[in-house]
Specification:
By secondary structure, the protein is mainly α. It has 5 helices and no strands. The longest helix is centred in the first third of the chain and has 81 residues, at about 5-85.
Length: about 180
């Protein structure tokens, strides 16, 4: 073999290696995207359930924290009532709505507007709404049955294309 033939062989070998690298890269890209689309369409329902359960857990933890805070407040109030029995006499008119029995004491009177504002604030706090389930945008878009079917078929076609177009080439035997 002469030098020119050797150089042509090396050049052809180098070109084939580059072509194989590109073919492998395209196979990996198409197969990965197809596999991701296929698994995303299959696992879409499970992912939606995961996000909903996570939101329910967060709201349950907030409710538990609120109840723990209320228990702490009530325990402190009961401890104060046990320590000082006169506290009951002082808070009875406010809680039970009775007239105070203390002579020579001036008690502030709340106006109707103040009471209405306090009722609104308490009603707003008691009717607190939990936020809607936070779902990732792409998951919300592909959660419908038609979108899931399309995503499944697109993933299957990408995997098929990756095997047909970029898979290993069959070795043909050369007959002389």
């Amino acid at each position: 073999m002469d030098f020119t033939g050797f150089l042509a062989y090396q050049l052809l070998s180098w070109f084939m290696q580059k072509q194989n690298i590109i073919q492998v890269l395209l196979f990996v890209v198409f197969f990965s995207i197809g596999a991701a689309a296929l698994s995303g369409s299959i696992l879409c329902g499970d992912l939606l359930r995961y996000y909903r359960n996570r939101q329910h857990l967060r709201s349950a933890e907030e409710s538990l924290e609120h109840l723990t805070m209320l228990n702490t407040d009530y325990d402190a109030l009961l401890g104060e009532l046990q320590a000082d029995p006169n506290v009951l006499k002082r808070i009875a008119p406010a809680t039970l709505g009775t007239e105070p029995a203390e002579p020579n004491t001036v008690y502030p009177r709340a106006t109707e507007e103040q009471l209405t504002a306090a009722r609104r604030a308490l009603a707003k706090d008691s009717k607190r709404q939990f936020p809607e389930t936070e779902v990732v945008d792409w998951l919300a878009r592909c959660s419908g049955p038609p979108q899931r079917i399309i995503l499944f078929l697109a993933g299957a076609f990408l995997i098929l294309i990756s095997f047909v177009c970029f898979g290993p080439a069959k070795q043909t035997s050369r007959e002389k």
